[in-house]
Amino acid sequence: MTLTFDDILAAQARLKGHIERTPCRHSRTLSEITGAEVWVKFENLQFTAAYKERGALNKLLQLGENVRSRGVIAASAGNHAQGLAYHAARLGIPVTIVMPKGTPFVKVQQTRNHGADVVIEGDGYDDASGVAKRLCEERELTFIHPFDDLDVMAGQGTVALEMLEDVPDLDVLPIPIGGGGLIAGMATAAKHLKKDIRIVGLEPAMFPSFTAKMRGVRTAQTNGASTIAEGIAVKEVGANTYAIARPLIDEVLLIEEPHFERGIALYCNVEKTVAEGAGAASLAGLLAYPERFRGKKCGLVITGGNIDTRLLASVLTRELVRESRIVSLRIIGDDRPGLLANVSRIIGEMGANIIEVAHNRLALDVPAKGAEFDVMIETRDAQHTQEVMDALRDRGYPPRVV
Fold first, then answer.
1. How do residues 110-160 score in pLDDT, each as one tens digit?
2. Which of 1, 211, 240, 340, CA to CA, is 20 to 30 A from 201?
3. Which part of the chain is the ACT domain (predicted)?
4. What is the pLDDT of residues 212-237, one digit of tens each?
């Protein structure tokens, strides 16, 4: 079994008119931040907000009538589930999705909204996949694998076809790796069209599945770790995806959690678009390893935008903390009337905003006649924060960052 360029061309023809032909745009600001020449493919603009519907639909369109009537089943943490459920509903095919516990609520709800019968079971993708295969036999359904399937890989490969149609002289494609379906399809298409293009795989440091297989380790050791990039948190890559992708990949890089978070925040603040953790992996790679991509024309894919709104809010707030735009300052002074008013006035005069104040008279490291304040403030940037701290120090209220 192998994947050919002709398979991907056939998938492109099959999918035409059924999915979005998403834009690939140059980002001047992200280019300035990363040092690379950044082009962004907005797959979060698909109807289900992820590229996964390409592979799912390509598979569905090739099923026989008797298979369609019985129905299909899949295991997925979210995006394959939504893509499969949406297009199966369009084609009149019954669909069952097994989703692992801990799948973001937004993905569960949207999958149900597309008409799927959702079963929540298993601690991760691998457990959910086992449940799905059992139900597949019991109910005589057809199992549609989210990545280790040639038709699915061919559909995902159409992403690279479109990118190189729009920007033929791309130097590097940094591609997220979960089960390996996307990188297998994209690398097959890209290397056929441009032999010298570099293919760089990116996977969460907590789930180094592809890296583990390259090193001869059967299963990545995750120790129950949880990553914000749950869409690519797979313990073991597919046998077919690995066999196809491995010869085409130039390098695989591991990404730590803060870089995923920063990627999400930059897409939101710079491109005004929403990316989930896995969806921001390509940008996270440029942030984590700038020297690998500096000066190169890089094609980044926002693979998905399905992120829980509370998690998105948390990520954006945490980014403000990283940038020292939200800071908690501890101030110790005499417990006398007017102390808090004086501190508040100084902060206000400096143009900062007070978010929260905690007043502690009982801390044992504070004098009995003293008081301790934790004041959380919001500023324009790190320099502004330093100016506020200098002003407090000059007025006799030396702060320290908590």
1. 889 999 999 999 887 778 889 999 999 999 999 999 999 999 999 999 999
2. 1
3. 328-402
4. 999 987 665 555 468 999 889 888 89
Three-state SS at 148: coil
CB within 8 Å of 219: residues ≥ 6 apart: 212, 235, 236
Predicted confidence (pLDDT) per residue in 35-67, tens digit = 999 999 999 999 999 999 999 999 999 999 999
- pLDDT value at 189 more than 80: yes
d(CA 64, CA 70): 10
Domain with 69, as residue range(s), is 54-143
Q: Which two tokens stand for residue 301?
A: 């894919």
- In the numeric block, which tokens belong to residue 41? 């493919």
Task: Flag whether 270 is in a domain.
Answer: yes
| Token digits of residue 33 | 């931040």
* The pLDDT value given to residue 107: 78
| Long-range contacts of residues 311-318, Cβ cutoff 8 Å, at least 24 apart | 311/104, 311/228, 312/264, 312/268, 312/274, 315/228, 315/261, 315/264, 315/265, 316/264, 316/265, 316/268, 316/269, 318/261
Using the predicted structure, report yes or no on whether residue 77 has a pLDDT greater than 90. Answer: no
User: 37-42 and 370-378: which strand pairing?
Assistant: unpaired
Rounded to whole angstroms, how far apart are CA atoms 292 and 30?
A: 16
CA distance 240 to 194: 23
280 plus 188 within the same structural domain: yes
Number of folded domains that form the chain? 3
| 204 lies in the same domain as 286 | yes
Q: What are phi and psi of 202, to 5 degrees?
A: -130, 125
Residues 356, 288 within the same domain: no
